[in-house]
């Protein structure tokens, strides 16, 4: 997008030990990097990160600011936009610049029934959070960028929320998986069979939201409007009804195979191959059938 | 424990909405209204906090008068009181303009320890309102919360982060958003429902009750503008039904999978 309007692309990073982060930003296309460094910025804090980044944005006045629509990205962006009194659009699935130079974001609404084209009409920066998985990373190995380090002096006392413990697994990037087997409420009681099938098929396991809500699978395997958008070559969707909030997550898959007991299930409208059957029987056959 | 204010939104059932290709608008005719799904989790969360620590649970909503019956449903689900912020000038606002109005309502209710919101609304669905209300009220925030304990002037809450959970401790008063689906909202109590429908009186405030500048709210106070609606691009699918015995169906799945991988 920057090329279209001849803007400079700048990555802004807050943290303590920058390690390879600034270089990685450059390798992915940043022309400049601003690294805000502070001991108390070592891990995410809404209060401190909002302050650190708002101060830089407020004084440098960029035209556009984009933030990943992750848990932390969404809260950080919303707080910065409110502080700077500027427009923020949510979870963009497309980004463009119109003839007047305004940022126009495609914002899914009503569980992705529609996409609203939304512009930031007042003030700068024009802000948007961007849904993970919709843009592919590009690599520019060996390029050089200017890395500027800014030492932060924000006092600890501004931080009103402290993380006391953490239970975090390394996340697999399901958005990039080639094959995904997705289980829904229809296979709630035979979920181990879904996992076994995925393992045999060399696939990642994805789930519908209620399966994650019940704690049967981690949140980062959730597919849909509040989860991941897939780009898989093939997805096998088992025991999922096909609610709007779900099907937006499989729109980017090349081939979709679905299994459901209900021949009128909505999921079949979003599938290439529709299998009306009891999933536990089918999974049993697939798992013993030595399908590798 | 001082008050607990729960921001609840009334939304149309998204299954009831259809996109009209000709006018490029969303048809809402006959769409049933309901309490936003995540806000039911927020109400349940607040009622559970009150059961352990006391305090009064007040629902706060911005929208037209037709929200009234659903706020009464919230009362039947255990809330003590409800306030509706309703005025023509509030309409058409983006997440920031909405947050301005909600923040003013929260200030006017006053005397609170906790402000509770849902993680996101199923219609607008920006998930931005919780952070923007927190910023306007200068409150600490803990988002995507599933459970919480309160102590002297502090809240200890479990929140979702990428890859898992964290326990975070914040000072009170604080704002939390409750993650969709983390609890089982209780069924509206029949006797409370009767009471809410016959005797309970909803408080309604307009722009001047809140002392808001009309330039800062609704369509005028918005920093973003919807240019047009488009249908979500859904790819064409073959929709081919696989026939045969279960064995044949399983074999076909394995075959397609192998061919496509
Ligand atoms: C704001 C908001 C955001 C949301 N975000 C998401 C999201 O990101 N992702 C998401 O998935 N959902 C999301 N949802 C929830 C979504 O609306 C649906 O409730 C959910 O997708 C339904 O999950 P499901 O299909 O697994 O369960 P159900 O709707 O209960 O469907 C189960 C299906 O299994 C079939 N079945 C039953 N038994 C069998 C069997 N033995 N074999 C085969 N099939 C069987 C049934 O016929 C049925 O079709 C969101 C909702 C809201 C309000
Ligand atoms: N008009 C409103 N009235 C009351 N609460 C609201 C309103 N809009 C948003 N909220 C609250 O903000 C949360 C997030 O909404 P949103 O940012 O629109 O996705 C909802 O779950 C509600 O708790």
Tell me the fraction of residues in β-strands of chain A, as a range: 25-35%
Which structural class fits the helix and strand makeup of chain B? alpha/beta
CATH architectural name of chain B: 3-Layer(aba) Sandwich
Radius of gyration of chain B: 22 Å
Just give the CATH class of the largest domain in chain A. Answer: Alpha Beta
Helical fraction of chain A equals 10-25%
Helix segment tally of chain B: 6
Order of helices and strands of chain B: EEEEEHEHEHEHEEEEHEEEH
- The helix/strand series of chain A, from N terminus to C terminus, equals HEHEHEHEEEEEEEEHEHEHEEH
Description:
- The complex is a heterodimer of chains A (292) and B (261).
- Chain A folds into two domains: 10-158, HUPs (Rossmann fold), CATH 3.40.50.620; 174-287, Rossmann fold (3-Layer(aba) Sandwich), CATH 3.40.50.1220.
- The two termini of chain A are 43 Å apart.
- Chain A contains eight helices and 15 strands.
- Chain A is of the alpha/beta class and 292 residues long.
- In chain A, the strands form four sheets. In chain A, strands 12-11-13-14-15 form a five-stranded parallel sheet. In chain A, strands 1-2-9 form a three-stranded parallel sheet, sandwiched between helices. Chain A has a three-stranded parallel sheet with strand order 3-8-4, with helices on one face.
- With 261 residues, chain B is α/β, with parallel strands linked by helices.
- Chain B has a single domain, classed as Rossmann fold.
- Helices cover 28% and strands 31% of the residues of chain B.
- Chain B is built from six helices and 15 strands.
- Chain B has a nine-stranded mixed sheet, with helices on both faces. Chain B has a two-stranded antiparallel sheet with strand order 2-5.
- In chain B, a hairpin with a 2-residue loop joins strand 9 (141-151) and strand 10 (154-161).
- In chain B, helix 2 runs antiparallel to helix 5 and helix 3 (95-109) crosses helix 4.
- The longest helix of chain B is centred in the N-terminal third of the chain and has 17 residues, at 37-53.
- The radius of gyration of chain B is 22 Å and the shape is globular.
- The chains are: A alpha/beta (292), B alpha/beta (261).
- At the A-B interface, helix 3, helix 4, strand 4, strand 6 and strand 7 of A face helix 3, helix 4, strand 9, strand 10 and strand 11 of B.
- The structure holds flavin-adenine dinucleotide and adenosine monophosphate.
- Residues 7-9, 36, 38-39, 42, 61-63, 95, 98, 102, 117-118, 120-121, 124-130 of chain B line the site of adenosine monophosphate.
- Adenosine monophosphate is lined by residues 7-9, 36, 38-39, 42, 61-63, 95, 98, 102, 117-118, 120-121, 124-130 of chain B.
